[in-house]
Amino acid sequence: MTTIREALLACALFADLPDAALDALSGSLRWQHVERGEVLFNQGDEAAFAYLVTAGRLRLVQHTLEGKDVTMATFTSTEVIGLIVVLLGEQYPGTAEALDNAELIVLPAPPLWGLLNTHPAFSLKVIHMLADRLHEAHNRIRELSAERVQRRVARSLLRLVEKVGVAEGHGAVRLDIRLSRQDLAQMNGTTLETISRTLSAWEDDGIVESAREQIVILRPHALVRVADDLPM
Amino acid sequence: MTTIREALLACALFADLPDAALDALSGSLRWQHVERGEVLFNQGDEAAFAYLVTAGRLRLVQHTLEGKDVTMATFTSTEVIGLIVVLLGEQYPGTAEALDNAELIVLPAPPLWGLLNTHPAFSLKVIHMLADRLHEAHNRIRELSAERVQRRVARSLLRLVEKVGVAEGHGAVRLDIRLSRQDLAQMNGTTLETISRTLSAWEDDGIVESAREQIVILRPHALVRVADDLPM
DNA sequence: CGGCACGTTGAAGGGCTTCAAGCTCTGTGG
DNA sequence: CCACAGAGCTTGAAGCCCTTCAACGTGCCG
Question: How many domains does chain B contain in total?
Answer without folding.
Answer: 2
